[in-house]
Design goal:
363 residues; alpha/beta; Rossmann fold; Dihydrodipicolinate Reductase, domain 2; 2 domains; 8-stranded mixed β-sheet; 15 helices; globular
Length: 363
């Protein structure tokens, strides 16, 4: 099969994959749908009148044949720690660009180590092209641009409305009992769960309690900005903080297979993810601050569409750029590939430089 100027959505039948396909079709794009669930993929292909490939990640020949025919793969199959490696190997072998929507720190770290081989193969590896980590990564780059001497970075996010998909919840379950992580002096350091808490101004005139979590930017923001000290916070309730602290002291139990299997069964019985109505009502808020050794600091925030909606829009925007020939080779974070204003290309995103007291709104 000759390589076409098209893209493959692997994991197209998952919650986020299917959402991305819907948005792609509405934009006039015609992705190749791919996955291992024969019935689900064929049904989707018939519904949207799209080409498809049935391929198992662990069947090298099958996967290579599927990847060979497209210019870029958008991997939507999580947990990505289980899927990135075989797909990345197929992309390297076939000269196909790789994009995914992971937020998993270990995946970012491992893909960063493929930078040299990606350049040799002439491909781009762009993990984190969704809510994880486009808005936070772009805000980090924006802050660093405004304070080039920054040595410390704090990021935080809060979502209103929506909910978790099965894939996101499964990824979270895999990390139960593993504690937290921050970056100190350029190195990722394991810390207790709920290591720090802060009141953060996600919205004008209102603070929300937030707690440190091992979010992807602990990895990616270092490569995007060079800032050696990074903490990432998520808005939570006080009850959630207590639960996180309990999970740290009882990690041996909460991280056990018995507990994880019980919770996974609960996840599998939930609805797949937020409804269209819930997503439309939802909204996300991102906050960030950088500081240097001289006492200077810059603070900014973003408001964006709900997280899954934003993921579909940012991932497809990245795919469009690659298909148009804009694919800098090697490992890239979103802002490394497309700049701090990449997030501002998404309708409905508002950025406020709190240090300058002015807003930038791009529709």
């Amino acid at each position: 099969m000759s390589k076409s100027k098209n893209f493959m959505v692997y994991g197209a039948n998952g919650y986020t994959g299917e959402l991305i396909v819907r948005y792609a079709v509405a934009m006039g794009m015609k992705p190749v749908l791919a996955g291992r669930n024969v019935l689900a993929i064929k049904t989707m292909a018939e519904k949207y009148q799209l080409p498809y490939e049935i391929c198992n990640l662990y069947d090298k020949e099958e996967l290579n044949d599927a990847v060979l025919g497209v210019n870029v793969v958008l991997n939507c199959a999580g947990p990505f720690i289980n899927t990135y490696k075989p797909m990345m190997k197929a992309c390297l072998k076939n000269g196909t660009h790789y994009i995914d929507i992971t937020g998993e720190m270990e995946v970012f770290e491992r893909l960063q180590r493929t930078d040299a081989v990606c350049k040799e193969a002439g491909i781009m590896a762009l993990p984190g092209a969704g809510f994880d980590v486009v808005p936070t990564d772009c805000l980090a780059a924006f802050l660093k641009k405004n304070l080039p001497t920054a040595t410390h970075l704090q990021l935080g996010f809060m979502g209103i409305g929506g909910g978790l998909s099965h894939g996101t919840a499964t990824t979270a379950l895999q990390n139960l009992g593993n504690g937290g992580a921050v970056r100190m002096d350029g190195k990722i350091k394991k810390v207790p769960a709920a290591y720090k808490t802060k009141q953060l101004p996600f919205r004008k005139g209102k603070n929300n309690l937030a707690v440190t979590i091992p979010w992807g930017d602990v990895s990616t923001a270092f490569y995007s900005t060079g800032i050696p000290n990074i903490e990432v916070y998520m808005a939570v309730t006080s009850g959630a903080v207590r639960m996180l602290q309990l999970s740290d002291s009882m990690g041996w139990l909460i991280g056990s297979n018995t507990v994880k299997n019980f919770l996974q069964a609960r996840v599998d019985n939930r609805k797949a993810g937020p409804s269209d109505k819930e997503r439309k009502k939802g909204k996300s808020f991102i906050w960030g601050k950088v500081m240097d050794g001289a006492g200077n600091e810059i603070e900014a925030r973003l408001s964006t569409p709900e997280g899954y909606t934003l993921t579909a829009l940012t991932a497809l925007n990245a795919v469009k750029k690659v298909l148009a020939g804009n694919a800098p080779v090697g490992f890239k974070t979103p802002s490394m590939a497309y700049g701090a204003d990449f997030i501002m290309e998404i309708p409905g995103v508002v950025r406020e430089n709190m240090s300058m007291k002015r807003e930038i709104n791009i529709e």
